[in-house]
Specification:
The complex is a heterodimer of chains A (441) and B (323). Chain A is 27% helix and 22% strand. Chain A has helices at residues 80-89, 108-121, 144-149, 167-176, 203-208, 215-232, 244-255, 266-270, 292-304, 339-348, 355-369; strands at 8-15, 21-27, 30-36, 49-52, 57-60, 62-67, 92-97, 125-128, 156-157, 183-186, 199-200, 212-213, 236-238, 260-264, 309-310, 387-397, 416-426, 429-433, 436-437. In chain A, α4 (167-176) crosses α6 (215-232) and α6 (215-232) packs parallel to α7. The two termini of chain B are 17 Å apart. Chain B has 323 residues and is of the alpha/beta class. Chain B has 2 domains: 3-139 and 303-320, 3-Layer(aba) Sandwich (Rossmann fold); 141-302, Rossmann fold (3-Layer(aba) Sandwich), CATH 3.40.50.1370. Chain B is globular. The chains are: A alpha/beta (441), B alpha/beta (323). Chain A binds chain B through residues 198, 201-212, 214, 278-280, 320, 323-328, and chain B through 86-88, 93-95, 113-118, 120-121, 124, 135-139, 184, 187, 210-216.
Chain lengths: 441, 323
């Protein structure tokens, strides 16, 4: 990963988060100089690569708090190498690999392996999420302390894919991780209310004859968990918030001073359950795509800060898991490579949000929630150069974009999306240049 | 007849694939083809040389036989492919099965499957015509067509028109009673009866109505006695026995008392309604033996009409319009 930090770069006339043009010099893995745009142009240092960035937007390297990299266990769907390369292509310099691998990341051994494989791949920093309970069984706590104190330095714990449904287990988990400033990231889903659930419960499910996943199954768990977090004074994070009702509960909890943060996925910001009418399982995801009303509420909540971050829930699946009947298909969609484009489409293009806000929601806040220091930093001399450069003017047909993920369950394939990640710097090294991996897979 | 057939959609996956004119064309064609079934030699040469596959992932002897008889009366070659259990447990995916059947030269695949949307998926993978013979809890379009055909024949005939040919169902009040939530028959019937102008009332406990039913073109009634007072036809739905275990209602007896069709309930009706049931019947549960066998009951006639309606569908979808 940072074995060399040898790159020397000069980015000229790049736009910062305040919309000012800057020249930025990178050397030894950090930013060494920042000037007004054009000032350093022509003052090239020895061995320095000059990258003309006029019209391009600089962002702190994106941080994903919710990524399924599938390794170990399902390397046919994704590997840490292919998934972290997809992350870099999407402008991410850090991802958190979810624990629902096979074996489950519920011991120090597995989380350390995940981090090591990420480091070997060298496309972005891979952090491990530890399971809350052993084997995601929802009953006995996993070795949370061992994972926290391991080389993987785990701070985020989640049974994602499963809800920590037992109230007592959830309470204990919230309390226990306080000792190392950890956070429980809850997949909020009442399992009884969602038995065999296939899609959002509402007028579309009624018509399609698919078993419904009611909003209340998410909202009831969030309501319980914010109260538990308040009671024990712990830190709670809500994964993939998908309903307008959940937003209201989180807004209430924050107003009350409860230490809760929340994420929304790109797909819940853009897609709705009408798409299910095709019965194409590329639109099958958990929690399911909801309605227009929910999409609007989620966008507003992301902008006003009720929802703190965007997290991809990148969920690769092999072709056969989607080329089947809806009810047989796996849940999940890929998202790393297009997350920024979807966010641009959802809240930037329509002027709901600025690039500064995008940086906050996709880099700075997720880094703080995950307690990682080298990412999500305000631009300044001396900071580690984890950076993303995006060209917001480009529009692309998604079907024509070549993906580096091993899976192709891409729900945006019929759309045209704005924005393209041009360059990604990881610890001062260029990993994506002109929209291509510097080191191909 | 076949001139109009070109305007119909290629597949019959949902009643939404049909316009009002398409639906009437199917019913009128069925009326004409019914005469074949009454003739001493029950066969037309229309689909000679065409191959129709009955692909059934669920047991449904009556629907399969009905389609088989329909195809054979039109001289098609029929292949019965019974793949009980889910595609996954069988080891071959639905897509691979579809491609296999296509290689064998199937002109039409009639699919019965436990997954909602299975027929839609199949139609995305195959060149042939796909006819949905029931997909999960989604739709069962030919059942709705035969129900409408049966209702029309009884309630829309007049002195000059013994079978109601050419008529739609406007002015009729029809109650659909029972497990609407899980019923593909109900979903197709709501769409079709509405398309044909009937007024529909759904009668069920709230637990067996889907969330979102407010958007349907129907009235909802929890009181069967009230609903039956003024209706022309009552369509009873089969109650799956596994619903008993999932807290949809307290007991079979209570369900039967509140939502079953027995002789006493029939006394509430001002005019004797036509009684329909897609079968198979749970006698004594959703319908009493007396009601099932009452003169108003057309349950067996529905079976006979099923063959004519399916002949019409095969005729219109395969009869020359498509290669």
């Amino acid at each position: 990963m940072s074995e060399q930090n040898s790159g020397k770069f000069l980015l000229t006339s790049i736009r910062d988060l305040d919309g000012r043009e800057r020249d930025i010099r990178i050397a030894g893995g950090v930013i060494t100089e920042i000037s007004s745009g054009g000032e350093l142009d022509g003052i090239q240092h020895e061995d320095e690569k000059v990258i003309e960035c006029r019209g391009l937007q600089l962002l702190p390297g994106l941080v994903d708090l919710h990524t399924h990299l599938r390794e170990p266990g399902r390397e046919d769907a994704e590997t840490i190498r292919s998934g972290s390369a997809a992350a870099a292509m999407g402008g991410f310099t850090a991802v958190h690999a979810m624990a629902n691998t096979d074996p489950v990341a519920d011991t120090a051994g597995v989380v350390e392996q995940v981090v090591r494989l990420g480091r070997d791949a060298g496309y972005c920093d891979v952090f491990a999420v530890g399971a809350v309970t052993q084997g995601l069984n929802g009953r006995e706590l996993a070795e949370l302390g061992a994972m926290a104190h391991s080389m993987a330095n785990v701070r985020v714990f989640s049974d994602d894919g499963h809800c920590v449904f037992d109230s007592l287990v959830m309470r204990r988990a919230l309390e226990y991780v306080k000792q190392f400033d950890g956070v429980i990231a809850q997949h909020a889903q009442d399992p009884r209310l969602t038995e065999n659930a296939q899609m959002n419960e509402g007028k579309v499910s009624a018509k399609l004859g698919l078993a419904g996943w009611p909003a209340v199954a998410e909202e009831a768990i969030i309501a319980r968990d914010v109260l538990l977090a308040e009671h024990v004074g712990a830190r709670l994070h809500i994964c993939h918030v998908s309903t307008a009702g959940s937003v209201e509960i989180i807004r209430w909890a924050k107003a009350r001073g409860i230490n809760v943060t929340a994420e929304v996925t790109p797909h819940h910001l853009l897609l709705t359950d009408d798409l299910v009418a095709s019965y194409d399982p590329v639109f099958k995801v958990n929690p399911p795509l909801r309605t227009d009303v929910d999409v609007r509420a989620l966008r507003e909540a992301l902008v006003d800060g009720t929802i703190d971050i965007v997290a991809t829930d990148h969920a690769p699946h092999p072709k056969e898991s989607k080329e089947c009947e809806w009810s047989e298909a796996a849940n999940g969609m890929i998202g790393l490579e297009l997350a920024l484009a979807v966010v641009q489409e959802s809240i930037v293009k329509n002027k709901m949000a600025s690039w500064r806000l995008v940086a906050q929601r996709m880099s700075i806040s997720p880094a703080r929630i995950g307690r990682i220091d080298d990412h999500g930093l305000e631009l300044g001399v001396g900071i580690i150069a984890n950076l993303t450069v995006v060209d917001e003017r480009i529009e692309r047909k998604v079907s024509e974009i070549k993906s580096v993920s091993k899976s192709s369950n891409n729900p945006y394939r019929d759309l045209i999306l704005p924005g393209k990640v041009m360059h990604t710097f990881l610890h001062g090294n260029l990993v994506v240049h002109q929209g291509e991996l510097v080191r191909p897979l | 007849m076949s001139d109009n057939a070109t305007a119909m959609k290629k597949h019959l996956l949902s009643i939404n694939d049909l316009t009002r004119e398409d639906a009437l064309l199917i019913l009128d064609t069925a009326d004409e083809l019914a005469r074949v079934s009454d003739a001493p030699i029950k066969k037309l040469p229309t689909l000679r040389g065409r191959t129709v596959v009955n692909l059934f992932y669920e047991d449904s002897t009556r629907t399969r036989i009905s389609f088989e008889a329909a195809a054979k009366r039109l001289s098609a070659d029929v292949i019965n492919f019974s793949a009980k259990g889910s595609s996954v447990s069988k080891g071959e995916s639905l897509k691979d099965t579809a491609l296999t059947l296509q290689s064998m030269g199937a002109d039409a695949v009639i699919l019965r499957h436990g997954a909602s949307g299975a027929a839609h998926r199949l139609a995305q993978w195959t060149n042939g015509v796909v006819i949905n013979a029931g997909d999960g809890t989604h739709e069962h379009p030919t059942q709705a067509l035969l129900d409408a055909f049966t209702i029309r024949k009884h309630l829309k005939r007049s002195s000059g028109n013994a079978t109601g040919v050419g008529e739609d169902l406007s002015g009729l009040r029809i109650s659909i009673v029972g497990d609407i939530l899980h019923s593909r028959v109900a979903r197709s019937n709501v769409l079709l009866l509405h398309l044909l102008g009937a007024k529909i009332t759904l009668v069920a406990p709230p637990t067996l109505l889907p969330v979102g039913v407010e958007e349907w073109p129907v009235e909802i009634c929890y009181d069967f006695n009230e609903a039956i007072e003024d209706c022309d036809a009552v369509m009873m739905l089969r109650l799956q026995l596994e619903r008993m275990k999932s807290a949809f209602f307290p007991s079979a007896r209570e369900y039967s008392r509140l939502f079953g069709l027995d002789r006493e309930r029939l006394l509430h009706a001002r005019k004797k309604p036509l009684i329909l049931h897609p079968g198979p019947i749970n006698r004594g549960l959703e319908i009493s033996a007396e009601s099932a066998d009452a003169v108003e009951s057309v349950i067996l006639e529905q079976v006979a009409n099923g063959v004519s309606v399916r002949m019409a569908v095969l005729y219109l979808l395969l009869g020359g319009a498509h290669e």
